[in-house]
Structure formats: structure tokens, C-alpha cells
């Protein structure tokens, strides 16, 4: 379910400069999904609660409560609610030369997710402006452009994380790795789930756990391999397959580097013990 305010083409003055096509609130709905193969609008959203999954161009990320994301015009925009915890969000769909200029001048290209930005009040102000002044499109156009300018400027400011927030991101990443250690993962995927950049994740994870997220992931996989070799009768090739290694040779080499012996020898040693 959504609360939507839309402005039909021609309703707002100077649409080539700035045009809010629609704005509104999306309420939690596990089936919520939007797909735009090549969008002509900028999609600017603040997540109030819950979480979702977003594909912008070729980049995937998972915004959660308190996050802002900005999807630029001209690229694929696909986003959907997390069925287990669907998000509620305030959003603005807009276009125009002003959006293009702000996006360029504030150097926002290449970054789509802005974790934990205290901008809810600005999004609420924009929505209320459109609700209260629907009959005054000129005022909506002028005042709305100023609010959007303020949001873009805020997004351009570097985010400073305190120790509690850093620890939270690291913990979120660790839980995700623990749940998906048997699957092929990249640090980029883990960072997207945690809601931070790869560099921020590497710093926060290492600060809390003493090793980087990729090392933690590879160690977790090897621990799972050791457990399977000790406690099951699975063939080494099947262990490799279950942990999604690309081939048996690669698994054997990685395991020997970790354990100091081959998988077969490791099983023999533990059987002897």
C-alpha cells in the first residue's frame, strides 16, 4: 500500500529544470517491487523501517532503516521489499536539468547507498509541501527544488561513524557471513548487506574482530570443511561441491594452505585420533 501524490505532465512550471513526477510513502508490503529497465528519473528514498534489496545498474545493495539511496536517471532501477522485513519509506521521483547539475556538482556518481543519514525530516518536509500546496504548483516547484538541493548537499558530506555504529556494521556483516559461509560471497556483497562501503567494512570489521571480512569468510569455510571431513563420510569432492569451490583441485590447495595437510590426510589423522 502506498500514499502517492503525483503531478501530471504540464502541471508544474519549468519542468525541464525541475519536475517532481511523484512523491509519497510506501508502507510495508512483502510483495512490493518496482522495475525500470532504463529509468528517466532520479529516485531518492529514505528508509523509515524494515529493509529491501536494490539493483542499480549492475550494483546490488540492501538498504535498512535510516539509510538513504539515490538512483540516478539513465540506468536500470530495480528494487523490492525484503519479504521477511518489508521496508516503509518516503520517496521522491524527479527529473530535470537541476537534478543533473546537482548530481554532477556534488559528485554523487558511483555511490548509490548513503547509510544512516539523519534526513527523515527533509523528506517529510518535501512530502508535506506537496500535500499542502498541490493547488499551488509554482510554489511546489520552487520550494521543492530547494529541499532537494539541501538533500543532495547533505549526501555529499562524508559520513563519520562513531564506535557503536562501526561495531554494529561489523556485527551485521559477521552474522551475514556466518549464515552464508557455504555460499560464494564477495566482500562487496557483504558490505552491501551491512550498508557500508567496502573500505568502511574492512576498517570496522578488522577493528572489532582483528581480521578482515574476507579472511573471516575463508576461515569459516575451512572450519566447515574440517567439520564435514571429521564428522561425515562424504567424499572430498562432495565436500568441495557443498562449499561451492570451483573445482576439487582449488579446494584441496586452499584446504592444505589452511590446515597444513590435504583433505584426505586431515581425515586420516582425525580418524586415527
Descriptive report:
The protein has helices at residues 97-105, 120-132, 137-156, 163-180, 187-194, 198-209, 213-231, 236-242, 248-259, 263-272, and strands at 2-6, 19-26, 33-36, 42-49, 52-56, 59-61, 68-71, 77-81, 88-95, 113-114. Helices cover 47% and strands 19% of the residues. Strands 1-2-9-4-7-10 form a 6-stranded antiparallel beta sheet. Strands 3-8-5-6 form a 4-stranded antiparallel beta sheet. The model has no long low-confidence stretch (mean pLDDT 90). A hairpin with a 2-residue loop joins β5 and β6 (59-61). The chain is built from 10 helices and 10 strands. α1 (97-105) runs parallel beside α3, α2 runs antiparallel to α3 (137-156) and α4 (163-180) crosses α5 (187-194). With 273 residues, it is α+β, with helices and mostly antiparallel strands.
Strand order of the largest sheet: 1-2-9-4-7-10
Question: What is the SS-derived class?
Answer: alpha+beta
The top-level CATH class of the largest domain is Mainly Beta
Mean pLDDT: 90
Summarize the amount of helix as a percent range: 40-55%
Q: How many structurally independent domains? A: 2
Which runs of at least 5 residues are low in confidence (pLDDT < 50)?
none
Domain HTH araC/xylS-type: 171-269
Keywords: DNA-binding, Transcription, Transcription regulation
Organism: Bifidobacterium breve
Pfam family, one: HTH_18
Amino acid at each position: 500500500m502506498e500514499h502517492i501524490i503525483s503531478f501530471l505532465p504540464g502541471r508544474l512550471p519549468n519542468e525541464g529544470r525541475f519536475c517532481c513526477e511523484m512523491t509519497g510513502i510506501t508502507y510495508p508490503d512483502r510483495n512490493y517491487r518496482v522495475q525500470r529497465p532504463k529509468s528517466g528519473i532520479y529516485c531518492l528514498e529514505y528508509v523509515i523501517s524494515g529493509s529491501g534489496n536494490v539493483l542499480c545498474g549492475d550494483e546490488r545493495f540492501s538498504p535498512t532503516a535510516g539509510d538513504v539511496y539515490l538512483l540516478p536517471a539513465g540506468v536500470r532501477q530495480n528494487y523490492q521489499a525484503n519479504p521477511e522485513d518489508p521496508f516503509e519509506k518516503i520517496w521522491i521521483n524527479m527529473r530535470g536539468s537541476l537534478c543533473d547539475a546537482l548530481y554532477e556538482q556534488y559528485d554523487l556518481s558511483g555511490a548509490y547507498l548513503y547509510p544512516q543519514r539523519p534526513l527523515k525530516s527533509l523528506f517529510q518536509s518535501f512530502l508535506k509541501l506537496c500535500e499542502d500546496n498541490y493547488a499551488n504548483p509554482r510554489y511546489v516547484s520552487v520550494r521543492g527544488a530547494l529541499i532537494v538541493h539541501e538533500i543532495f548537499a547533505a549526501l555529499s558530506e562524508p559520513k563519520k561513524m562513531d564506535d557503536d555504529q562501526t561495531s554494529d556494521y561489523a556485527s551485521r556483516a559477521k552474522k551475514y557471513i556466518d549464515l552464508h559461509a557455504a555460499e560464494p560471497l564477495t566482500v562487496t556483497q557483504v558490505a552491501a548487506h551491512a550498508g557500508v562501503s567496502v573500505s568502511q567494512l574492512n576498517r570496522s570489521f578488522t577493528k572489532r574482530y582483528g581480521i578482515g571480512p574476507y579472511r573471516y569468510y575463508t576461515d569459516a569455510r575451512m572450519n566447515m570443511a574440517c567439520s564435514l571431513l571429521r564428522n561425515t563420510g562424504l567424499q572430498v569432492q562432495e565436500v568441495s561441491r557443498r562449499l561451492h569451490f570451483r573445482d576439487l583441485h582449488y579446494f584441496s590447495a586452499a584446504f592444505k594452505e589452511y590446515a597444513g595437510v590435504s583433505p584426505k590426510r586431515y581425515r586420516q589423522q582425525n580418524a586415527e585420533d
